[in-house]
Amino acid sequence: MSTYHPLTESEAIQVARSLTNIFESEGELVSREIGDGNLNLVFHVSQPSTGLSLIVKQALPYAKVVGESWPLTLDRARIESEALIIEERFAPGLVPKVYHTDNELALTIMEDLSNHVIMRQGLIEGGFYPKFAEDISDFLARTLFFTSDLGMNQQEKKLLVRSFANPELCKITEDLIFDHPYVDADTNSFDAHLREDANKLWADSELHLEVAILREKFLTHAQALLHGDLHTGSIFITPESTKIIDPEFAYFGPMGFDIGAVLANLLLHYASQEHWSPNATARDERRKYLIQSVREIWVLFESKFRALWDEHGIDRIAKTAGYQDYYLRNLLQDTIGFTGAKMVRRIVGLAHVADIDRIPEPAVRAKAQRLSLEIGTKLIKRNRQSTSIEQLIDIADSASKV
Amino acid sequence: MSTYHPLTESEAIQVARSLTNIFESEGELVSREIGDGNLNLVFHVSQPSTGLSLIVKQALPYAKVVGESWPLTLDRARIESEALIIEERFAPGLVPKVYHTDNELALTIMEDLSNHVIMRQGLIEGGFYPKFAEDISDFLARTLFFTSDLGMNQQEKKLLVRSFANPELCKITEDLIFDHPYVDADTNSFDAHLREDANKLWADSELHLEVAILREKFLTHAQALLHGDLHTGSIFITPESTKIIDPEFAYFGPMGFDIGAVLANLLLHYASQEHWSPNATARDERRKYLIQSVREIWVLFESKFRALWDEHGIDRIAKTAGYQDYYLRNLLQDTIGFTGAKMVRRIVGLAHVADIDRIPEPAVRAKAQRLSLEIGTKLIKRNRQSTSIEQLIDIADSASKV
């Protein structure tokens, strides 16, 4: 079993039983592969007699996107598993528990969360998640603070930076978020009606400079251990519970990249409301809820991050007068910039979001797409001048009123 | 021989003969330990019959500074050796050639440069080095550019970042440069007549904020492979040749840290001229020479770095309009800030410079020390507002005229 090969369903049962003590010894196990087969095998292994279950996730040695297939390191399974363990340590209860890791098989056996829904789908179905802003701001504040030089011994952090070198998955981000959307790249994919919008994007040199600067931060600013792919498809949710999954893109980068991923995906959903909330009053409500979520996430994040800093700052220098304000101002600016970059790539780049792509009427879809581009590009262009989350909200608000 | 132990002189001869083919097989070898015994053994191994020679440098498992001794990783020998090889690749002829590396014995066998002098000593003795600005700007521009995301494939760079994780030696810098000088720390060491100046330093909250920001860059901004300790004691020189030695502090950090180290040490020497150039006219000449060196180093560095960028920029994004100017402006600001930090620590921190410490008359020494503090603190405070190297020069000029 120990040499790498994609597991069969019966092998998944075998590892689930032999490598964990989740199941009672009696009682048959059932396995069902529930992954989309693009990157990973995901086996749901359960014991009908007891109702117990778990997930066996195995990385595949390739990625398939839109028909293409390219080799992809199995080391991402180790990274995902180690990231989950660190996230659980600093933000307990907000990630699936890891029961077992096998780096040779590129395998993580973990808590089954199938009583949750993927947040993107939940939002599309009109779900309200009153606990989300609280939970995600906890997750962000705690994982980012405690893996940064502010909250972790600086030498211990350097060893973690080394262990989370993740060149292959970072390359995907560098290409698909910071490069291809701003040029006529083969990987781009967008509706024909967006051709002129794309041309504008590709010719916008003010925008390109800001994207180059954001990319430089992604490449060099080893601020904290990021999740690295924190969109609403990486969040399992119920009204009472939030679980962050799939940190295979984890590496040490700029904090604002993770915060921005969350805000961007809420704003992409916001931009799609003409379809998902056809009733004008309901749409207004829905938009207010989403904007309020964006605001609360930042405001809660900031206050929690500051509280952690005051209470758990690792050294004398963290207490330097003015340093915290300087740091948070830069972090807000990064957040706003990365929010924008994460929106733009979902409209013209390779990977889209269901919130928008599933809008059937082309005219309505086009409005959502243009609104996303409008908000995204403005956020990118204004990030370095921003001083308050209200400026991000104003941009989203006023764009949607045009 | 392969288990680590400090070599004897006869073992140094043995490794020099068996691990390199520098010497002719006949002809006795002579070994002389010429290190200061604080961090490393340095054996000069020569063959009198042929005039051939080389250096066997071995790391010791401890550091001794001012009587104290603490354990220090032998891995720094690997780092030094790998850094020398990379520097030779990108800046050929400006570092000693590495003949052999043995990580187990923490050993580097390399080119003998004893026909050069240590630049700090050369400057103290009144040496002029007409080729220095050209050589050091070459070294800086080439090593920094080609190990950054601008000049090196970004995925290859990430693997190098991992290999140059250097927590123990970075810790020395973090403590001795960015922390201890700004607080009444046990490791600090300064003349009694500087007590009031030190008190001022420790109470200067504007300064402390800027130092905290510079430290954050040192901790997180993995911009390029730095030498990490590029003072004039790490430079072997003659009027015709420059060789950069001792990169055991190498790691991926902010480029301005290396450039600032060079400028700071020239300015510390500048601040000591009342003693070393007692004749007023000669002193004026000497100061002009030093200031002109500072200016030329930056100006040449900038033009070479921009030329490398234009010619060897690794990707489309490097060519984004405005990006190079943005990058160079930040780099100048970092350089000015780190120059200041490198000056202040040499006056009140643990490790001093001979340029100043060897001034026998306390009043003259005190003037040099206060001038260094004056220039250093101003550079730190003004770094983020700077737009030209002339602003650094004005600060040095006007401080020395008071």
How would you classify the quaternary structure?
homodimer
Average pLDDT of chain A, rounded to a whole number, is: 96
Number of domains of chain A: 2
CATH architecture of the largest domain in chain A: Alpha-Beta Complex
Read across the widest sheet of chain A, the strand sequence of neighbours is 1-2-3-7-6
Tell me how many strands of chain A there are: 12
Instruction: Find the CATH topology of the largest domain in chain A.
Output: Aminoglycoside 3'-phosphotransferase, Chain: A, domain 2
Derived from helix and strand composition plus strand pairing, the structural class of chain A reads alpha+beta
Which pair of protein chains has the largest interface, and what are the residue counts? A-B, 39 and 40 residues
% residues in beta strands of chain A: 5-15%
User: Which range best describes the helical content of chain A: under 10%, 10-25%, 25-40%, 40-55%, 55-70% or over 70%?
Assistant: 40-55%
Low-confidence stretches of chain A: none
Give the helices and strands of chain A as they follow along the chain: HEEEEEHEEEHHHHHHEEEEHHHHHHH
How many separate helices of chain A? 15
* Biggest sheet record of chain A: 5 strands, antiparallel
* Name of the CATH superfamily of the largest domain in chain A: Aminoglycoside phosphotransferase (APH), C-terminal lobe
Distance between the termini of chain A: 60 Å
CATH class of the largest domain in chain A: Alpha Beta
Round the Cα radius of gyration of chain A to an integer and report it. Answer: 21 Å
InterPro entries (chains A, B): Aminoglycoside_PTrfase, Kinase-like_dom_sf, Methylthioribose_kinase
Family (chains A, B): Belongs to the methylthioribose kinase family.
Protein name (chains A, B): Methylthioribose kinase
GO molecular function (chains A, B): ATP binding; S-methyl-5-thioribose kinase activity
